Amino acid sequence: MDWGIILGLMAGGALAAPLAAYVSKKLPARALMLMIGSLIVVMSIRALLQL
């Protein structure tokens, strides 16, 4: 187990969680769904192109 990677993931999560909570409170639900849906589509296309 690489503790450096684990600590990095924990620190990133600890920093990202409050930011995500703040953004989700300020943005309308429709905008959030559009952003998340777009991200999923882009990541899926990228994965298909790497096959």
Give short descriptive properties of this protein.
51 residues; mainly alpha; 2 helices
Task: Characterise this structure.
The chain is mostly helical and 51 residues long. The protein is built from 2 helices and no strands. The longest helix is centred in the N-terminal third of the chain and has 24 residues, at 3-26. It is flat, with a radius of gyration of 15 Å. The mean pLDDT is 94.
SSE topology sketch:
Layout: H1 3-26, H2 29-49
The total count of helices amounts to 2
Q: Uncertain runs with pLDDT below 50, 5 residues or more?
A: none
Order of helices and strands: HH
Rounded average pLDDT: 94
Major β-sheet profile: none
Strand pairing plus helix content: what structural class?
Answer: mainly alpha
Helical content stands at over 70%
User: Which band does the percent of strand residues land in?
Assistant: under 5%
Intertermini distance: 29 Å
Tally of discrete structural domains = 1
Q: Overall 3D geometry? A: flat
Number of strand segments:
0
Give Rg in angstroms. Answer: 15 Å
Can I get a quick summary?
By secondary structure, this protein is mainly alpha-helical.
